[in-house]
């Protein structure tokens, strides 16, 4: 155990353990996006082990657990020790001071408050980009020692790596519910295709592509540790048998699942989800594989034309047209925004006639949005009348415009107020006249 940790520390030292979170204006976590796991954990592993392990404690300070690091910050002067301030032992002992950027990372984490703002249970966490050093046991190389991952259902880590290592199923599970659903068909353990090397090589490639994506959080029983919903890439045999015909058509890209949102290949490690069900680095190869499966089942284009797009109930929610606002709804004369219910995590003021927002990362910022305010997932929702048009109170961030102030509303003109309790839960949808 200790050997493994020391080895990991060595690897991290070699590549530099810095971690960055970069991305659009709607990143979670807030601020510099520093988290205990992986940022602080990696800094401690690289610089403070093996002197401060639970199994070999120095100076009463334990730095291989979250609680230990927190205690060292609160009561044993960790910040003073790493800044080499007088009256404290200079840390790390016997070697150079940490790089200023690493000290800044630790201080940002502390300053961000409460050592990791924990999201409120059940609240959707927006997709974000996470970059971290190589996990121990990852034998693939990496040019800069960092692996970057789009953390979302439709996001992928780098090719041939696992989303389980570099993404976060905890985040994915806030983005859509998981439940167990039995396969449509069982898998035949004596399927002759199992002896077909060409077929199996292709299936294994498909599995690696799925494993790189957020799909494995619910569709791979072995990596996720939970029974898969319908299809399980770890099922013994040819797992694609488990899919319904519609499921095969979705994965082949013949039935659209666009409504669920997608990254472009450019910001998803080369994985595209434009024209297939799961993100892939080779669209044609995935389509060929699943088109073959459709053909083998005898599913025709006529059958496919009759299938519903994935998530049709989501379409119904999004396409719900607005009502007229009552006189107590909309942006009122006091400049504040009012709607019919109290809780809001997303507030949009849009041009009248513009489309309603859908699922991130791609469908939640339709054209015509003048101003959008999001509430951080670790902060209580906003109440009606609490926030004024263009205001960005603490615990919220302005997504649109991505910088600068909200455009002034023209008095007497009609605008669309769209308020969500959370993604896909509208609590306000009406047209008001600006005061
Ligand atoms: C080579 C071993 C070694 C390394 C590496 C090391 N420490 Fe220490 N640390 C010690 C020892 C021994 C003590 C207790 C004796 C002392 O206070 O000098 C100590 C004490 C401390 C204390 C208590 C300071 C005080 O003045 O009471 C803190 C906080 C601390 N370490 C944090 C860290 C952090 C953070 C790192 C990594 C950035 C780190 N240490 C790296 C050996 C080490
Ligand atoms: C948070 C869990 C979760 C994640 C992540 C997830 N799914 Fe699913 N998926 C489910 C559940 C639950 C069902 C079953 C829905 C039902 O009850 O009909 C399902 C069903 C499906 C089906 C229908 C299967 C069939 O045979 O009809 C397809 C296709 C599918 N998912 C594709 C994907 C793809 C592609 C991804 C990744 C981009 C993904 N899923 C990510 C939970 C998830």
Give a brief rundown of this model:
This protein is of the alpha+beta class and 435 residues long.
Number of helix segments? 14
Helix-and-strand structural type:
alpha+beta
Task: Report the oligomer.
Answer: single chain
Q: Give the overall shape, derived from the CA principal axes.
A: flat
Report the order of strands and helices: HHHHHEEHHHHHHHHHEEEEEEEE
Taking Cα atoms only, what radius of gyration do you get, to the nearest Å?
A: 25 Å
Strand content: 5-15%
Major β-sheet annotation: 6 strands, mixed
**Which compounds are bound in this model?**
heme C
Indicate the low-confidence ranges by residue numbers.
1-32
What does the model show?
With about 425 residues, the chain is α+β, with helices and mostly antiparallel strands. It folds into three domains: about 1-120, no CATH class; about 175-310, no CATH class; about 320-435, no CATH class. Helices cover about 30% and strands about 10% of the residues. The chain contains 14 helices and ten strands. It has helices at about 1-15, 35-50, 65-75, 80, 100-110, 165, 170-175, 195-210, 215-220, 220-225, 245-250, 285-295, 300-305, 310-320, and strands at about 130-135, 145-150, 325, 330, 335-340, 345-350, 370-375, 395-400, 415-420, 425-435. It has a six-stranded mixed β-sheet, with no helix packed on it. It is flat and about 80 Å long. The N and C termini lie far apart (about 65 Å). The relative contact order is 0.10. Residues about 1-30 have low confidence and may be disordered. Bound molecules: heme C (HEC) (2 copies). One heme C (HEC) binds next to α7, α9 and α11.
């Amino acid at each position: 155990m200790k050997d493994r940790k020391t080895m990991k520390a060595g690897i991290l030292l070699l590549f530099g353990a810095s971690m960055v979170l970069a991305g659009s204006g709607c990143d979670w976590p807030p601020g510099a996006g520093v988290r205990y796991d992986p940022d602080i954990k990696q800094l401690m592993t690289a610089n403070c082990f093996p002197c401060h392990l639970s199994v070999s404690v120095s100076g009463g300070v334990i730095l291989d657990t979250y609680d230990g690091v927190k205690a060292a910050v609160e009561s044993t002067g960790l910040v003073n020790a790493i800044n080499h301030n007088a009256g404290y032992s200079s840390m790390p002992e016997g070697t150079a001071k940490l790089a200023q950027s690493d000290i800044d990372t630790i201080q940002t984490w502390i300053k961000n408050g409460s050592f990791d703002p924990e999201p409120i249970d059940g609240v959707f966490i927006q997709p974000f980009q996470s970059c971290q050093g190589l996990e121990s046991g990852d034998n693939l190389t990496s040019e800069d020692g960092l692996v970057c991952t789009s953390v979302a259902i439709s996001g992928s880590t780098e090719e041939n790596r696992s989303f389980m290592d570099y993404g976060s199923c905890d985040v994915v599970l806030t983005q859509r519910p998981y439940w167990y659903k039995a396969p449509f068909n069982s898998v035949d353990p004596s399927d002759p295709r199992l002896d077909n090397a060409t077929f199996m090589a292709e299936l294994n490639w498909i599995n690696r592509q799925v494993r790189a994506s957020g799909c494995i959080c619910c569709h791979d029983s072995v990596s996720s540790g939970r029974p898969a919903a319908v299809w399980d890439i770890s099922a013994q045999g040819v797992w694609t048998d488990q899919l319904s015909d519609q499921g095969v058509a979705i994965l082949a890209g013949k039935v659209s699942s666009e409504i669920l949102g997608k990254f472009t290949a450019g910001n998803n490690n080369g994985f595209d989800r434009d024209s297939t069900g799961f993100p892939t680095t080779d669209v044609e190869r995935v389509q060929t594989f699943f088109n073959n499966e459709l053909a083998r089942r005898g599913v025709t284009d006529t059958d496919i034309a009759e299938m519903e797009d994935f998530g049709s109930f989501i379409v119904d929610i999004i396409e719900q047209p607005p009502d007229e606002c009552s006189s107590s709804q909309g942006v009122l004369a006091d400049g504040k925004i009012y709607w019919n219910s109290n809780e809001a995590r997303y507030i949009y003021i849009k041009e009248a006639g513009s489309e309603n927002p859908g699922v991130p990362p791609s469908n939640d910022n339709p054209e015509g949005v003048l101003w959008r305010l999001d509430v951080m997932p670790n902060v209580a929702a906003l109440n009606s009348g609490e926030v004024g048009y263009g205001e960005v109170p603490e615990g919220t961030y302005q997504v649109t415009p991505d910088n600068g102030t909200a455009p002034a509303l023209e008095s007497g003109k009609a605008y669309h107020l769209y308020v969500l309790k959370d993604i896909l839960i509208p609590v306000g949808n009406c047209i008001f006249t600006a005061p």
